Structures are given as structure tokens and as C-alpha cells.
């Protein structure tokens, strides 16, 4: 009888990132995933439904659901609305591939959510607190 082997989420992700198509999608959605995680954290901390958060932001519930799905990068205006209304800070560093992120080292260490993605086209680091 073979035993089921549990794989950690980090190990599973590392394996999935070997697939070029998955990797491209992972890189494309880096910013969206940070926003989604931070919104979910905010809603949990404030015990809000998606509808209640939407009302607070002057949005509709489906827009909150789309943001929390993390599939599409939000517009800059949306990030500004989230920051202004909810007090969430976003820090985005975009640099050419292979260059160090010189500006963000201390800020990233203090962030709640961080995504760092590098591809041949360039790299992006986004942090939210």
C-alpha cells in the first residue's frame, strides 16, 4: 500500500512554475494577487462582507469579487481609491530584469503582502500594508 505524500504549497508552486504557460500567468497576475490578498485581509480584520466593502468604496459587490479573485491587474485609480478609503499602502517597484531593487529593501520587510516576480521582460515587486 502506498502512502499519500503531502506536498507543501511552496513545493507545489515551485513545480508549477516550471511550466512556461503557468509561469507567464503567474508573472502577469503578481500585482493582482497582492491586491487580492490585502483586500481579503482587510475584510477579515474588519469583519466585512464583499457587499459591505463595496458600499464603503462606492463600488458594486461584483467589482470586489473580481479584485479578490486576483486575475486582473487593478487600475492605478483603483489602487488610489483603496489606499485613500481603506488606509492601505501599496508600493510598486518596476525595474529591468537582472537589476537589484535598490529602493524597497526596508519597506518590503515590513509589508503584509509581497510579490516579487522576474521575467525576461523585466521584474516587478509589489508590497502592500
Describe this structure in words.
With 129 residues, the chain is α+β, with helices and mostly antiparallel strands. It has one domain (9-128): lambda repressor-like DNA-binding domains (434 Repressor (Amino-terminal Domain)), CATH 1.10.260. The protein is built from 7 helices and 3 strands. The protein has helices at 9-16, 20-28, 30-46, 50-57, 61-69, 76-86, 105-110; strands at 90-95, 113-119, 122-128. It has a 3-stranded antiparallel beta sheet with strand order 1-3-2, with helices on one face. Helix 4 crosses helix 5 (61-69).
Structural class estimated from helices and strands: alpha+beta
Query: Which percent bin holds the helix content?
Result: 40-55%
Rg of Cα set? 17 Å
| SSE order | HHHHHHEHEE
Largest sheet: 3 strands, antiparallel
Number of strands: 3
What is the helix tally? Answer: 7
The shape is globular
Which CATH class is shown?
Mainly Alpha
Mean pLDDT: 84
Strand content: 15-25%
> What is the domain tally?
1
Name the strands of the widest sheet in spatial order: 1-3-2
Under CATH, the topology can be stated as: 434 Repressor (Amino-terminal Domain)
CATH superfamily: lambda repressor-like DNA-binding domains
Low-pLDDT windows of residues = none
Amino acid at each position: 500500500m502506498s502512502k499519500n505524500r503531502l506536498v507543501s504549497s511552496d513545493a507545489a508552486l515551485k513545480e508549477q512554475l516550471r511550466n512556461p504557460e503557468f509561469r507567464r500567468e503567474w508573472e502577469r497576475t503578481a500585482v493582482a494577487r497582492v491586491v487580492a490578498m490585502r483586500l481579503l485581509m482587510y475584510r477579515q480584520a474588519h469583519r466585512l462582507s464583499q457587499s459591505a466593502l463595496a458600499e464603503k468604496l462606492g463600488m458594486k459587490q461584483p467589482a470586489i469579487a473580481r479584485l479578490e479573485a486576483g486575475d486582473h491587474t487593478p487600475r492605478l485609480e483603483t489602487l488610489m481609491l483603496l489606499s485613500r478609503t481603506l488606509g492601505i499602502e501599496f508600493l510598486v517597484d518596476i525595474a529591468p530584469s537582472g537589476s537589484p531593487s535598490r529602493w524597497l529593501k526596508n519597506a518590503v520587510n515590513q509589508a503584509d503582502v509581497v510579490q516579487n516576480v522576474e521575467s525576461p521582460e523585466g521584474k516587478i515587486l509589489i508590497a502592500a500594508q
